[in-house]
Specification:
Blueprint lengths: L6 E4 L5 H10 L5 E6 L10 H12 L6 E8 L2 H12 L9 E12 L7 H4 L11 E9 L11 E7 L7 H9 L6 E7 L5 H6 L5 E2 L5 E7 L4 H5 E2 L5 E5 L5 H13 L1 E5 L2 E6 L4 E5 L5 H9 L6 E5 L6 H9 L13 E5 L7 H9 L15 E5 L7 H10 L2 E5 L1
Parallel strand pairs: 1-2, 2-3, 3-4, 4-5, 5-6, 6-7, 7-9, 8-10, 9-11, 11-14, 14-15, 15-16, 16-17, 17-18
Antiparallel strand pairs: 12-13
Helix pairs in contact: 1-2, 2-3, 10-11, 11-12
């Protein structure tokens, strides 16, 4: 059947004839194409030949390629491949586009071909649902991905720092986002300048997954996002102290009012998954984020010095579990938190949730991971947790 050959891989030592034959055999079947020419980063002499053969295979088939992954070492190669797809007035059927370049590339600014010829008009990009750009940038104020569901933008920094209005343009160009990953981005704006900006909030009502990883914006992103339907949140290596100041505004942008019997009772987030790792948050910030998220089912805390026995006692032990934080919590992962030392506090977290009536809404802890924390590793301690937790990983 043609679908057997619908995935075409063109790699460092590509069997061009085989890929060409696959393309012919698929006839009218939608194609998934993966082009990897990274080898030529250290051996650019054969890059033109590799590009010529690659384009010979895919150019006649762009009208039926629905997924395209491109990994190239240099700007010129990337430009040639993208131009093959976007040279027509009619948009290709691409639903997924993933592009990675070893050499920083800004389509439409650093190249001789303007953005308008690569991406002719915003409305022609309506087929793209998933976009992944790694060390590749575009002129976001010239395009609009009206039906984009997932976006990852990574590794824009160093000599190519982003201005914050550029970051806002990235988000504003994709109003229907359901998943947003910003990774290793650095702003060009000075911190004191950022503090003086009064940004206009950006609403992402469909956003369900958000990941900030090494996004050095000193809390600016916390001030502009409204995502009241967010379910999965990952905050990783946010090392600026400014995040603590602006975190309350961020939490407010995630909250929606919950009503009972037509009366507003409380504002809370819809978060079910929360990961906080290697962030320079203080204890109050972490506690506020967790307390405002009573629907959490999984909590993952990694390398956080502010996480202490006192914090866990305050969150999970000091109040009846029905009135405490995270009564729906089923998975708790704690890694490399050097100020968490008490096995007794963790025992109370587990035991306080056991044997509760079903209508109480309290969930038993089904999985507990404790790794690289200075908690007692005595045999009897570990055995207690093995008896009371279905799925246990205890490596201290």
């Amino acid at each position: 059947m043609p679908t057997l050959w619908s995935k075409i891989n063109i790699r460092d030592h590509p069997p061009y004839e085989r890929a060409l034959e696959y393309a012919k055999r698929t006839k009218t079947t939608p194609l998934s194409v993966h082009i990897n020419l990274i080898k030529h980063f250290s051996d650019p002499s054969n890059l033109d030949y590799a590009l010529d053969r690659t384009l010979e295979i895919i150019s006649p088939e762009v009208h039926r390629v629905t997924s395209l992954v491109v990994e190239v070492p240099f700007q010129a190669g990337l430009l040639r491949i993208l131009h093959a797809f976007f040279r027509f007035r009619r948009s290709p059927p691409l639903e997924r586009l993933q592009v990675m370049s070893y050499e920083y590339f800004n389509i439409g600014i650093d190249s001789e071909t303007p953005t308008d010829r690569i991406f002719p008009q915003g409305q022609l990009l309506g087929n793209i649902r998933h976009l992944d750009l790694d060390n590749v940038d575009i002129s976001w104020n010239r395009v609009r991905f009206r039906n984009l569901y997932s976006l990852r933008v990574a590794n824009l920094g160093g000599p190519t720092l982003l201005a914050m209005h550029h970051v806002c343009a990235i988000i504003g160009a994709c109003p229907r986002l359901e998943s947003l990953i910003l990774e290793n981005l650095s702003p060009s704006d000075e911190i004191d300048v950022l503090e003086q900006i009064n940004p206009v909030p950006i609403a992402l009502p469909y956003l369900r997954t958000l990941q900030f990883k090494q996004v050095h914006v000193d809390g600016f992103m916390f001030r502009i996002l409204n995502a009241r339907n967010l379910v999965h949140l990952t905050l990783h290596e946010l090392e600026s102290d400014g995040h603590n100041e602006h975190l309350p505004r961020f939490i407010q942008g995630l909250q929606s009012a919950r009503t009972i019997r037509s009366r507003v009772v409380v504002s809370e987030t819809k978060l079910e998954y929360l990961q906080i790792s290697k962030c320079r948050f203080n204890l109050d910030s972490v506690e506020q984020l967790i307390v405002s998220s009573p629907n959490l089912r999984e909590l993952y805390i990694d390398s956080m010095d502010c996480v202490t026995d006192t914090l866990f006692s305050s969150l999970f032990v000091s109040k009846p579990v029905e009135k405490g934080a995270c009564k729906k919590l089923e998975i708790l992962r704690i890694v490399d938190c050097q100020n968490l030392t008490s096995a007794e506090v963790l025992k109370r977290v587990v035991s306080s949730r056991r044997g509760k009536k079903r209508d109480s809404g309290v969930k038993e802890l089904e999985r507990l991971d404790v790794k690289s924390c200075p908690v007692s590793n005595e045999s009897k301690t570990k055995k207690w947790f093995e008896r009371n937790v279905v799925d246990l990983c205890w490596v201290t």
